[in-house]
Amino acid sequence: MKKIAILSSHYGIDFRGAEFWIKNLKEHLKGDFDVEVFSKFIGSYKNWISADVVVPVDGRWQVFFCRLLAWINRKPVVVFGHSGPGADDKWNLLCSPNVFVAFSSFQKDWAEKYKLPWTKIVKIPHAIDLTKFTPAPEKPNRKIVLCVAANTPDKRVNLVKNAVKLIPGAEFVAVGKGNPIQASFNEMPGIYKKADVFCFVPQPWEAFGLVFLEAMASNLPVVTANDPVRREIVGDAGILVDNPENSKELSEIIILALKKDWGGKPREQAKKFSWEKVTEKYEKLFEEVVK
Q1: Is the pLDDT at 191 greater than 90, yes or no?
Q2: Which of 291, 290, 282 is nearest to 30 (CA)?
């Protein structure tokens, strides 16, 4: 049994992409692997340093001190690029983890430029549980545009809100911290089922966006920003907008998405990111790191 220690001070408190990623990893990576989460970095040091692999999630100084302690104790460190291309993950790469995991091809190419020679870069995309997020058998034609994201500047929820205001008869629904609606993970499948289009236009440095997979698994077409990461995730299951800051342009794209018959394209795109496929990549990664 290989023990994987994940260090996260926010796990069980916040419900952001990284915390959901940990939850899903614990559920799906079984068999020869034991995944344990530690919320106290110093207080639980003797426990997590005994693991076969150490995974710091909080970034910055946690990664630095974790790498130092793991080096002293000869433990491999794996860092996942939750921060996305930018200063935080540059720092994480300079801390020289044994492996840095990128969630997209674009992020992998970016990381190759900043890594130290001995750090290995691998790509493992986020994954979706296709049994939890499923299409609605039927839905009323209410033109509901859903955005799932924390209401922070980098998530740009207001861009979607302002665009939907320009669409006659459309209803904007925002779910997440800082929005009128905050829901538990177990409530989210039902929320996606009520929507007609999913629209989320984060900043280009957004590492991935699990919510895109959740929406597509629910067979919702996606409207998002035209950047390399979102192109890789969405494929032909949605429409990309060049200037999401332009409310009129964004609203016109949303209207196109509402009018188009998408068939099962979004769901088919989500199947490319199923846990059944991605789990094999995690197993291979940790097997190689522990050798």
Answers
A1: yes
A2: 282
For 2-14, how does the pLDDT look when each residue is reduced to its tens digit (9 = 90+)?
Answer: 999 999 988 877 6
Cα separation of 196 and 199, whole Å? 10
Query: What is the homologous superfamily of the domain 2-127+274-290 according to CATH?
Result: Glycogen Phosphorylase B; (3.40.50.2000)
- Prediction pTM value: 0.90
Single out the residue of 188, 187, 154, 157 nearest to residue 174, CA to CA. Answer: 157
Give pairs for 238-241: CB < 8 Å, separation 24+. 238/198, 238/266, 241/201
271, pLDDT greater than 90 = yes
Task: Indicate if 144-271 has the same CATH topology as 2-127+274-290.
Answer: yes
Residue given tokens 């997590």 in the structure block: 48
**Structure token pair of residue 2:** 């290989």
247, 223 Cβ separation under 8 angstroms: no
Phi, psi of 177 (to 5 degrees): -55, 130
- Give the closest residue to 181 by CA, choosing from 173, 192, 172, 170: 173
Q: Tell me the fold of 144-271.
A: Rossmann fold (3.40.50)
**E strand spans, the chain:** 2-7, 33-38, 53-56, 78-80, 99-102, 120-123, 144-148, 171-175, 197-199, 222-225, 238-241
Q: What residues does each domain of the chain span?
A: 2-127+274-290, 144-271
Annotate 77-109 with b (16+ C-beta within 10 A) or e (fewer): bbbbbbbbbeebbebbbebbbbbbbbbbebbbe
Helix and strand numbers, DSSP H then E, in the chain: 12, 11
Contact 205, 84 (CB under 8 A): yes
- Residue 168's Cβ-side half-sphere holds a number of Cα atoms within 13 Å equal to 0
How large a percentage of the chain has pLDDT more than 90?
Answer: 76
